[in-house]
Amino acid sequence: NPKIEPQYYLEQMLMQCEVKLNNGHHERNERVFFLKPWFFTLGETGSAVEMKRQIRDSCVVIGEKRHDKRIIDLMQKSAQLWKISEFHNVRMPNFLRNFGFEEHEKHVVQMTHFLRGHFDELWIITYCVVLVINGLLISWGTTDTVRDEFFEFRILGTATCRLGFDGIQLIGSEEEKRGCYPYSLVFRLLSFFHLGFATLMVVSWGLSNGLANYYEEPPTTNVGNGKATAIPVGFALDKMRLQQNNESFVQKLKRYTTLTRRALGLSMIKYYVVYGSFAILAAVHTPMWNAFHLVDIITYSSHLKDILLVTNRHYLRLLATVFMGLIFVYGFAVIIFVFFSDQIVYNVDDDLVFMCDTLWGCVQRAVDLGFRNTPVFTRDPVPVITPLFNLLYFLTINTILVSIITGIIIDTFAEMRETRDQVLEEVTTKCVICRKGHHAFDQSRNHKGFIHHITVEHSIWAYVYLKYHILAKANYSPETLSNVELFVAKVLLEGDSKLWRIIPLHETMHLKDDSKNKGNDDDSNSSDEDDE
Questions:
Q1: Residue 133: what pLDDT?
Q2: DSSP 3-state helix, strand, coil percentages of the chain (rounded to 5)?
Q3: Maximum pairwise Cα distance, the chain
Q4: What is the pLDDT of residues 11-51, one digit of tens each?
Q5: Taking CA 56 as the corner, what is the angle to CA 51 and CA 59, rounded to the nearest 5 degrees?
Q6: What is the spatial distance between Cα 290 and Cα 293, in angstroms, rounded to a whole number?
Q7: Distance CA 427, CA 154 (A)
Q8: How far apart are CA 290 and CA 292, in angstroms?
Q9: What beta strand segments (E) does 146-270 contain?
Q10: In 3-state terms, what secondary structure has residue 441?
Q11: Which of 327, 392, 394, 464 measures 20 to 30 Å from 267, CA to CA?
């Protein structure tokens, strides 16, 4: 039916999970069939797909987490998914009702869903406007001014059309301004286009990746003796609305102030505040401020983020190396000032410049030029001291220190690539749930293959949905729990740390009837460090 959205198809809604039951005497595996909770169905489009990939990859880091820890992290981090859906489909409509916008609720929610799913398109349009503005800055900008201003814009293809530093005001005589008025609107229109699309882009980010960052810390509540992930309010809308309707104005103000303070603490919010400030300055002061917006590609491109992550990952090592280099340079500067102040200069572009007249000046020259060039003796070289000093300076400053910094960066790139390759191999060759390798399923005569196993039989997201499905029934309709669901509910109510007890490890009932493959799975039976 074309009127039904794909996420509501039965194949997308009907879930199955294999769980391990243990009553203290014997173990057996059973399957649980259920429908995906509605808040996951509505909240897993657009940016949620990339978020699910990031959650999955972070939970299978090689050599750092045991199998039970991976499952616990998966369940806790998955709270981001339903919290985002909860914001769009529960909290925002409730917010609109509280402030009297109930008649516009449907349109606002539809608009937020549209913006949430089109961040990439909005970013591309915004960045293209930035590229056009900066292209005009490069083409028209000149310091050859006709007035006292230090900078102006000369329109290419015209003989007399010039714009002032603000990019709006025409300069020159009335005769020179004739026919130039349309050019005075170019930067103004582009700046306002940029402001408009940038606003939509930031809102779209806030409704998608921004909410993911906002809800990065899993919401928790104490249940029994353990700590379990909170129950989505989608299960108890009436209760939530009753609580909020009974709030006083001061209580609502405190709640919204707390939420706003938490949002302003996000690093990307701070970045977008600076971004918006420069956009406003570009519109009201000068378009030169748009040069800053070219940096925005770093926040969008994952490859450029990795480059920044390289320096951030081992920044203490880099800072320590640079500090050590400054100490060595200072030491050499003191030696030069005391013993060779009238004999040494620095070589810059084959010109001997910057003699050390004072210690402060010598230190400045050494820091500024010493990392790039070795000091040069201009007269009275000492036969042994001079070449030894040059050799020590060259090896210590120009070779060893630079090599250390380069080595740290290269090693970090290698670590990141190795981790990424290991994660990719882990999620494509082994089942995250049962840890059995792909050969056991692909070589089976009675099984549909490994892809079918990890997407249908042991889908990690089906286990996430199972958790909230069981917790909802246990909290609001416990009498409807089956025997299997009752056992799972008891485990879940003990806290996330006990969740591994229901996960089948190195076994699955889907291969039990295939005697050919029983015991032949080298991948699953090999000893994994993370499962020891």
A1: 93
A2: 65, 10, 25
A3: 100
A4: 778 888 888 887 767 778 888 888 887 767 655 555 667 77
A5: 125
A6: 5
A7: 57
A8: 5
A9: 152-154, 162-163, 220-223, 226-229
A10: helix
A11: 464
Ordered DSSP codes for 9-73: SHHHHEEEEEEEEE-SS-EEEEEEEEEPPHHHHHT-STHHHHHHHHHHHHHT-TTT--HHHHHHH
DSSP-assigned letter for residue 265: T
Q: Identify the helix (H) or strand (E) that includes residue 359.
A: helix 359-369
What is the number of alpha carbons within 13 Å of residue 478 lying toward its C-beta?
A: 8
CA–CA gap between residue 317 and residue 332 (Å, rounded): 23
Tallying the residues shown for the chain, one arrives at 532
pLDDT at 226: 41
Distance (Å, rounded) from C-alpha 272 to C-alpha 260?
A: 15
Residue ranges of alpha helices (H) inside 217-343 are 237-245, 249-264, 267-284, 296-300, 302-313, 315-339
For residue 193, which of 121, 281, 279, 112 has the smallest C-alpha distance?
279
Of the chain, the end-to-end C-alpha distance in Å amounts to 49
Tokens of 277: 């400030």
Summarised one tens digit per residue, pLDDT across range 250-260 is 777 777 787 77
The Cα–Cα gap between 420 and 145 comes to 53
pLDDT of 189 > 70? The answer is yes
CA dist., res. 299 & res. 297, Å (int): 5
- Find all residues with CB under 8 Å of 298, minimum gap 6, and list them: 304, 305, 308
Cα–Cα–Cα angle for 10, 13, 19, rounded to 5 degrees: 120
Q: Is the pLDDT of residue 306 over 70?
A: yes
pLDDT at position 129 is 94
In whole angstroms, how large is the CA radius of gyration of the chain?
32
Indicate the burial class of 256 (C-beta count within 10 angstroms; 0-12, 13-18, 19 or more): exposed
Residue 244 is predicted with a pLDDT of: 55
Q: Which of 7, 60, 70 is nearest to 38 (CA)?
A: 7
Q: Is the dihedral of CA 292, 297, 299, 305 positive or negative?
A: negative
32: phi then psi, degrees, rounded to nearest 5: -115, 125
In the chain, the amino acid numbered 96 is: L
Alpha helix stretches (DSSP H) within 370-506: 385-393, 402-429, 439-442, 450-452, 460-476, 483-493
Tokens representing 416 are 């990141």
